[in-house]
């Protein structure tokens, strides 16, 4: 029996009691196996926040559901189980802060600007923009999630720059540097971000393998931003 099946077998069918039944199930079904319990709790919290993110503007579109499937890979035979959790969580936006708070305690670094939680926020941005734009209610949702995750405003804007830009992606904002910085400073910053956000490091810190797509997408954004700045500086 997969951990999804174990989890769901311990839950009630009541959407109104979804949060309580999920938490109780994680606590009891995986008692004695803290590592699996942490990874299952992480996965469930990501599913819940993704569902609530899609519902934040009052409408769940097919594009947003598809975007969730893009960033959260799972075995084909577990599709129904994951869908059941997703549907329970998306009943309304109420309660999303509780999921976010529980998720924030699972980052083993226990520090501000946790890279694992940044990948979660990246995934939520990916879903929010799936219907072509990020609505005001969705942005407010994302800002509140970042606050709960103890992210600085500067780091939140850096993450947002990878997803939202009127005039195209700003490579300097993506790396969190200034056009006034010399190239050696930018290179050090880039290399630090690569070390911090390398998928292998994130997975060893607790990020489920199912979240590999968004981790790789972030690395691609960092690499592209650095390459663009490097080309610009060489041409100058």
Give a description of the structure.
With 236 residues, the chain is an all-alpha fold. The protein is built from 13 helices and no strands. It has helices spanning 3-9, 18-29, 34-55, 62-71, 79-89, 96-104, 115-128, 136-148, 153-161, 171-175, 183-197, 199-204, 212-235. The protein starts with a helix and ends with a helix.
How many H/I helical runs? 13
Beta-strand content estimate:
under 5%
SSE pattern, N- to C-terminal: HHHHHHHHHHHHH
Gyration radius, in Å: 18 Å
Give the oligomeric state. Answer: single chain
Q: Assign the structural class, choosing from mainly alpha, mainly beta, alpha/beta, alpha+beta, or little secondary structure.
A: mainly alpha
Mean pLDDT comes to 77
Helix content: 55-70%
Number of strands: 0
Amino-to-carboxy terminus distance:
60 Å
Instruction: List the uncertain runs.
Output: 12-16
Main pleated-sheet profile: none
Shape: globular
